[in-house]
Amino acid sequence: MADDVRTWILTGSPENYTATAGRDFTVIGLKERNRNRALEIEPGDRIVLYLTKIMRFAAAITVTGEMYEDREKIWPGKPGKAAPYPWRFATEPELVLEEDQFVPAEELKDDLEHVAKWPPEHWTLAFQGQIRTVSEHDAELLMARLRAAAGVPA
Predict the structure, then answer these.
(1) For the residues 9-14, what does the mean pLDDT come to?
(2) 113: alpha, beta or left? (left if phi > 0; alpha if psi -120 to 50)
(3) d(CA 131, CA 110)
(4) What is the pLDDT of residues 80-90, one digit of tens each?
(5) Distance in angstroms (rounded) separating the CA atoms of residues 67 and 89
(6) pLDDT in tens, 111-149
(7) Which residues does the UniProt record annotate as the domain EVE (predicted)?
(8) How far is CA 13 from CA 10, 19, 58, 125, 129, in A?
(9) Distance of CA 24 to the CA centre of its chain
């Protein structure tokens, strides 16, 4: 992977994931308040999708276009707090798991550098907030586990 390509973890609800899957993983959007973070995302970057509530990793997608603004409603968001997720990117699926293959975050929490920033009993805080970059170590670990779950050779 090129040095300038980054891996991000996008935290979203299972409902938002279903909406993304319904569009064949061809678009992803960030919340209004995450514009500065969105400006850091570039074509070629990878986004690993983490699902709240079930606390599992479900897919990896690749950013294929520059950021654009669009407020068409795609994702349901939180009840009563529907956000337009206006900072959007064209994407394509890299690796999408079936629901019974989703990787439990708890199985990776002791090995991810990103999670080590929090006290062990509060590891779930590592996935609060919508988007964050992870180290090359974490990116490789996440992708290895997703590939293994999918039965794809490393």
Answers:
(1) 95
(2) alpha
(3) 20
(4) 777 889 999 99
(5) 5
(6) 999 999 999 999 999 998 899 999 999 999 999 999 999
(7) 7-143
(8) 10, 10, 11, 15, 12
(9) 15
